[in-house]
Design a protein that fits this description.
TIM Barrel; about 30% helix; binds iron/sulfur cluster
């Protein structure tokens, strides 16, 4: 007989000033797609350090009255719903439960996790999927990052990419750029100003009328081979297990600069360059992958919200390529000996739908891709449901079952949140 006490968090809401309160009676609810439900016991974790609270403008919190079993709405004007952006390495298994009032603005490009409070502790519906600490900065004073950025600029004073990335580290707080300044983990190497996709949730370029801003500005110049190789060599001199990643949030699609990347990586390798060279990509250009592999690239990470053509193209809105090209790229990468990860943009109630799981399982089994990075889709949940409304996802199984079944069906498959360092 299990003795673990059942955690039943109470609803959390806020006033317009952002003060957060727990409700004395109403229980926390959460949302998976169109489903409004109590959290499953196995999905509640104490709120991880480094998570951020979000006040949801124009939205009322929804909770459950345990006496009547009815869903109650906190509708007072100064009572607002709250959501949480879980710290990196955590995948949300459910989104916040709220109802949107007329005239409410679209929410900006973040993921909105369900939050509750119980016996002095905040709880979130999420799962830690990676034990790597590369995006934890809670114990690193800002001065150390500033100092690292200064040293990097001093070492490579004429390198435009260094000026761009140290700016990103100190202005946007970009975790990848901060790690470069600190000389640890994964170095970002943006190269491309253009993209052949128009993702609804693109973080580097948003159309005027989208209603929400991009969270980063796109790089405005094309770095040279020397600028890229200089950064790679310096990072190798600082980090024993260096990872170098083309394809960052502040650029377009790196495969549009495949020739530059291949030439730079070949130069780096020829000079004895070590470490894992990775390309984060929308995998739209399969013909570029054999040359990248021959040049010394080790892995690619393919961005994907769905393994089905309809939902994929509805989100990525490809321009000059199709979903089939993405599949072709995964096959070409495997045939060229590359380690292939998916950057799976997980959305509770959609990605864990039976029909989505079937398609993803078939893709993994057919291509033998190696790893799935369980990322959160950063987009207003109601916009996601409108965008995906026309597709039948089937009943949802929950994050825990989703992972368990994929692991069972594809025993070699690895899971995480970050690009793995590949031992050679
Ligand atoms: S692939 Fe990347 S850069 Fe291109 S539209 Fe999508 S998010 Fe933006």
């Amino acid at each position: 007989m299990s003795t673990t006490k059942r955690i039943e968090p109470f609803l959390v809401f806020a006033d317009a000033a952002g003060n957060i309160y727990d409700h004395p009676e109403l229980l926390m609810l959460c949302r998976r797609g169109n489903e409004l439900t109590l959290p499953r016991p196995d999905e509640l974790i104490p709120l991880p350090e480094g998570s951020e609270f979000f006040l949801l403008p124009g939205r009322s919190a929804l909770g459950l009255d345990p006496e009547t079993g009815q869903v109650e709405e906190l509708g007072e004007p100064d009572e607002l719903a709250v959501a949480v952006f879980a710290s990196p390495a955590h995948t949300l298994s459910a989104t916040a439960a709220y109802s949107t009032r007329p005239g409410a603005p679209v929410l900006p490009l973040f993921a909105y996790g369900a939050l509750g409070f119980y016996e002095g502790q905040f709880y979130v519906c999420a799962k830690r999927v990676d034990m790597d600490h590369r995006q934890e900065f809670c114990n690193i004073p800002r001065a150390r990052i500033e100092n690292g950025a200064r040293k990097l600029r001093a070492d490579l004073p004429d390198n435009r990419l260094v000026r761009h990335l140290t700016g990103c580290a100190l202005t946007y707080g970009c975790p990848a750029a901060r790690n470069l300044a600190l000389g640890r983990f994964e170095a970002p190497l943006p190269t491309s100003r253009t993209c052949n996709a128009r993702c609804v949730g693109c973080i580097s370029l948003q159309p005027e009328d989208s209603g929400f801003p991009s969270t980063q500005n796109r790089i405005t110049f094309k770095p040279s081979q020397n600028e890229l190789v200089e950064i790679m060599r310096r990072h190798q001199s600082k980090e024993k297990r260096p990872i170098y990643s083309f394809g960052q949030g502040c650029e377009g699609e790196p495969l549009t600069e495949a020739a530059l990347i291949a030439a730079s990586v070949a130069k780096f390798r020829k000079a004895g360059g070590l470490g894992t060279v990775n390309v984060n990509t929308n995998a739209s250009l399969p013909q570029t992958l054999p040359d990248l592999a021959a040049a010394g690239v080790d892995s690619i990470r393919v961005s994907l919200n769905s393994a089905r053509k309809g939902p994929y193209e509805a989100y990525y809105r490809p321009n000059g390529y199709q979903f089939e090209n993405v599949l072709e790229s995964i096959r070409a990468a495997k045939a060229s000996g590359l380690f292939v990860s998916l950057n799976l943009l997980y959305f509770p109630g959609i990605t864990d739908g039976e029909n989505e799981w079937d398609a993803l399982d078939a893709l993994v089994a057919e291509t033998k891709l190696d790893f799935i990075q369980m990322r959160n889709l950063n987009l207003d949940p109601e916009l996601v449901m409108r965008l995906m409304g026309g597709f039948d996802f089937g009943p949802c199984m929950g994050l825990a079952n989703f992972l368990k079944r994929l692991r069972k069906s594809n025993p070699w498959l690895g899971f995480g949140y970050f690009n793995p360092y590949l031992e050679k």
